[in-house]
Amino acid sequence: MSVYEISDTKCLEKLFQGWQETLIWSCMQGCMGRAYADDITNPKSAQIVIGDFCFFAGKANKELVWNKPDDCKSNFIIMIPQNNEWNELIEQTYKESATKVYRYAIKKERNIFDIVKLKKVVQDIKKTFNIKMIDKDIFNQVIKNTWSQDLCSQFNDYEDYKKRGIGAVVLEDGIVVSGASSYIVYNEGIEIEIDTRKDYRRKGLALACGAKLILECLNKGLYPSWDAQNKGSVALAEKLGYHFDKEYIAYEIVDY
């Protein structure tokens, strides 16, 4: 059995059908990420790798669980299995390098956002801070800092981000201290990434960035999708108008 990279993802549609996940949609639409399967024409097992995430669908396949794209430099990845067979295979394969966690899916609903409320959140930010959309200088600052890199890390460079990405940051004296940006893009929208510098947390900055980004997305006809790593992220999403959907199993792999 072998692993094949799939350029025409149409053959994977049945395997990933019904999975409400924008990172999968992004790869299936040819926007970002890479896809692999056990067969080019009639696959039974499939893998999508995009950013720090990896999705498995179909019949559990050990070669796909082991598969790491040649351009993947990180040893950390979050694996998201479609069923229990994949769960067991991931645990057997990575053993103590795999940590089972629960993530929280947020409903993808249109026309739920309170525009007036979101604008007020942005306006009510303390006067020592100001909110700006990500431009070239901010992009370069964001990429240089470890805590904020994920805001723009999936884009090749600023020109790529300018063309496809969108994001807002909070600045204090010209320094980025919080941000909300497109982690990935897909045809109809983005997946939101929010990060705040550790010493600036619990000041409402993530809320303000999130509100600004949602407003800008709505202005451009983009859907701002949200997936939560923890319950704090769920609470933040709900303050912005989203609704919790369900929790799901994922595996954090530290020796990928």
Please explain how this structure is put together.
- With 256 residues, the chain is α+β, with helices and mostly antiparallel strands.
- The protein folds into 2 domains: 4-106, 3-Layer(aba) Sandwich (Aminopeptidase); 115-240, Gcn5-related N-acetyltransferase (GNAT) (Aminopeptidase).
- It has 9 helices and 13 strands.
- The protein has helices at residues 13-16, 22-28, 62-66, 84-94, 115-123, 136-144, 158-164, 205-219, 231-239; strands spanning 4-6, 34-37, 45-50, 53-58, 77-81, 98-106, 130-133, 167-172, 175-186, 189-196, 223-225, 227-228, 244-253.
- Strands 1-2-3-4-5-13-6-12 form an 8-stranded mixed β-sheet, with helices on both faces. It has a 5-stranded mixed β-sheet with strand order 7-8-9-10-11, sandwiched between helices.
- α3 links the parallel β4 (53-58) and β5.
- α5 packs across α8 (205-219).
- The longest helix has 15 residues, at 205-219.
- The two termini are 21 Å apart.
- The mean pLDDT is 97.
